[in-house]
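Cast an eye over this sequence plus tokens and explain the fold to me:
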Amino acid sequence: MAIVTTGVAATGLAILRWQLLSATLMFIASTLNIKLRKSDYHALAVVVSGLGIAASCWFAAGLLGLTIDLPAIWSGTKSFMVQMMSYAPPDYPATLP
């Protein structure tokens, strides 16, 4: 019985690893934000808040099943930039006399 329970728990942790990591990051960001604001490190608190917001977006995207395909985004950006550069004049960027 213990082996089955351990296997189920290990499988659950393996499947939910990114959600658990992002939830942990949100908790750490919240704790650090409170401590940094009390210590008058407001700039660092803003940075930590931004990281907490990024972690919460990552968490929500993981729960919704959304994934980020970076190679597809990069190839789309690359093809868009090449297309926009093809409309530029041949001497662009040119220095003015």
